[in-house]
Amino acid sequence: MMGQALAKRDIHRGIILYDEQKFSRALEIWLSVLSKLRKPQDRFSVHGYVCMALLETGYYKEALEHALRQVDIAEWQNKDILKSEAFYNTARAFQTLGEMSKCLTFCERSLNYETDIPALPGYVHLCMGCAFLALGLISKAYMSLQFALDTSEEHEDKVLELMTRSSLANVFTAVRDYETAREHHWKAIKVARVFEAVDSSFKFMRRVLANAAVVMLKVGSYSDALDIAEEAIKDALTFSDRPVQSKCLFIFAEVHRERYDLKTAYPRYEAAYELAHEIGDQKLQMEIIMGMARAAEAEHDLLQAYTLAEKSYNMSMQMSCKLEAVRCLEHQSDLAIKLDRPEVSENSDYLRGQLLQELELYCGICDEPLGDRPGRLEVLDCCHFVHQKCARYLLRASQTQTVHRCPCPACRTKMPITSTTTF
Length: 423
Hints:
One of its GO terms (molecular function) is protein-membrane adaptor activity. This protein is mostly helical and about 425 residues long.
């Protein structure tokens, strides 16, 4: 009994250290105490703590191992509450490793069981939304994230709110609606600043900032992108947050590339890639290779640029990240024209068109691709996206000047129109 009491005391010590972002010390304590625990419930909890800390610090494969041990315990105990948590942690681990189909499978399994964590379904939908986004399924991503946002409001869960806002911003960034993306990022940062004022070790700020820096990069605000990323990486280095470190290094490289400072860009690409490879972030590796392709193009090494762009495309297809594949094909097509290979360019354009059709990335009103160029989009109640400039054509006024509901051209679902709707 004394041994179990001491073990539980150590578990609590680990939680305190985790909250202080002293992840290495917390992990050391939790891993040492695991062998001393007799009760399955206690072992389940500690495996969950270890999984969280490993995800924070970028040890994704190790995190998956502990999540799967939770699954084993949950199934052995045959307790729904344990299953819902274990399947969620497993989904998160698969998401970080770039295995989105497995992530979605475990998210769905988690939602099939009851939970004693009120906001857990919201976190599961957040995970699903991020996975759908990686797969290029924009409408499904938005739908899942909207559910997560509604859950955050219902349970007044500010952490879920800011994480969801940041992820929604990523959705709009992916389809090049940078104005809406910035709006969501600033809302996320506003929530995070409130937490930071109370708790200086609040860990979510650096993640939100790293995402916001990407939007600044996309709109050409390079100084702002550098400043925001520098703030994020400074905090990430303090607390050994390798995922944020690798993302910020990539942002630095992209800024220097855009400024044609390629000698400064390449070492940062290499450092970012090495770290992304070390932690197992396949999606970031693919993005870095695409950035290096553009750097090679800037140096007029078109053959090397095409080789890297092709490698990035192959990686994106292996992960089923089809929206990223669309972007890769855009670049491949441009490079093929410069290399005087019109047949290769035509093939890239053909494959790109097929992917756009598969992902339903066309405006249902004008039939033009979504995200082909920067611009505002509207999201209908059915979660289909249309160009903002086209959305006004869904409004119909009768002879009595009453605004009627009009069907979404993509799914024929009625879109509620209110007097406050503006386009």
